[in-house]
Amino acid sequence: MLPCSVKNLGTKQVVWRRVEGDKVLTIGTMTWSMDNNVSMEHSKKSKDVTTWNLILHHVTPEDSGVYECQLTSRAGHVRHVTLNVVGPPLTSKTAISITGRRYVDQGEKIFLRCNASGGARVPDEMDWFKGGDKIDENKYKHVQIYKIQSHAEKYFVSELTIEHSSLADTGDYICRSSTDDIANLKVTVLHAESANKRRGTNQGDNGTHKSMSSLENGASMTEASTNQEKDGAATIIVSKISLLLTLLALLWTHQTSLLAYTS
After folding, report:
1. Which residues contact residue 33 at a Cβ distance below 8 angstroms, ignoring those fewer than 6 apart?
2. Strand bridging mode 182-190 / 103-105
3. Does one domain contain both 145 and 184?
4. Domain shared by 111 and 161, yes or no
5. C-alpha Rg value of the chain to the nearest Å
6. Is the pTM of this model over 0.70?
7. Same domain? 42 vs 105
């Protein structure tokens, strides 16, 4: 608890902020930080004095630093409080990532998993956004969000599911933790024609079929040409044999005539 008491506050507001990073934590009784470990304890001590104590739950060495309690007035009334947290060495920064398919066919399921693990503090909450708009299950009725958190194993997992995707579900999906860690993944829902072009299924199959048909036709033409050449060669051989037999017959007839004349 970081104390701050104010006398004669009037219409002014009390603002708590962390000096490092100039991060506003509370304004009046409202908490401005997304970190659920921050809260405000407000009470009235007397007629003129009120307390505005900043409460930090589950503090770690990362919370060490200078905090400022300030009034929203031109006079600039400010109180600084230094917080020192003694503990084990700081662990690595929380790692956050989104896994899932970047391309899905229209009607298929979209399943994204956001995993925040490591770090000194497990996120208290995880929110999903699409195109800068926070995904609320009441507004996005076709979207289901399931969350798993473990302080012992230091992880927070949030799963986003859309059972039957539409073209309108295309967009940049952002996962943001309460510790301001962000990850994003662009998902594209493909129309049937776009999906076929991307995969090359229709045109590729038709092209393959046409190529095979062309090859088969070419092979048939080559075979027919070869058969014609064989038939032509056989015809020439038969003609030559017939001519040779005719010449032999003429020679035989001529020789027989000479023998008869000599006798």
Report:
1. 23, 24, 25, 26
2. parallel
3. yes
4. yes
5. 45
6. no
7. no
Question: Nearest-CA neighbor of 179 among 72, 44, 62, 261?
Answer: 62
- What pLDDT was estimated at residue 215? 45
Separation of alpha carbons 58 and 168, rounded Å: 41
What single DSSP character describes residue 121? S
Q: Residue 143: which domain range?
A: 95-190
Q: Is 24 exposed, middle or buried (0-12, 13-18, 19+ CB in 10 A)?
A: middle
Decide if 206 is inside a domain: no
Structure tokens at 42: 């407000």
Residue 101: the pLDDT is 93
- Quote the Cα angle for 222-227-228, to 5°: 95
Let me know if residue 43 belongs to a domain.
Answer: yes
Residue 150 has a CB neighbour count (10 Å cut-off) of: 11
- Answer for the pair 56, 40: CB distance below 8 angstroms, yes or no: no
The mean pLDDT values, 10 residues at a time, for the chain of 263 residues are 87 88 87 84 87 88 89 77 76 77 94 83 86 85 89 84 94 89 92 61 46 50 56 61 68 57 49
Report pLDDT for 257.
Answer: 53
On whether the CB atoms of residues 132 and 182 are closer than 8 A, the answer is: no
Contact criterion met (CB below 8 Å) for 6 and 14: yes
What distance in Å separates the CA atoms of residue 38 and residue 36, rounded to the nearest whole number? 5
Specify the amino acid at residue 58: H
CATH of the domain at 157: 2.60.40.10
67, 88 contact by CB (below 8 A): no
Confidence (pLDDT) at 35: 78
Virtual torsion, Cα 190, 195, 197, 199, nearest 10 deg: 130
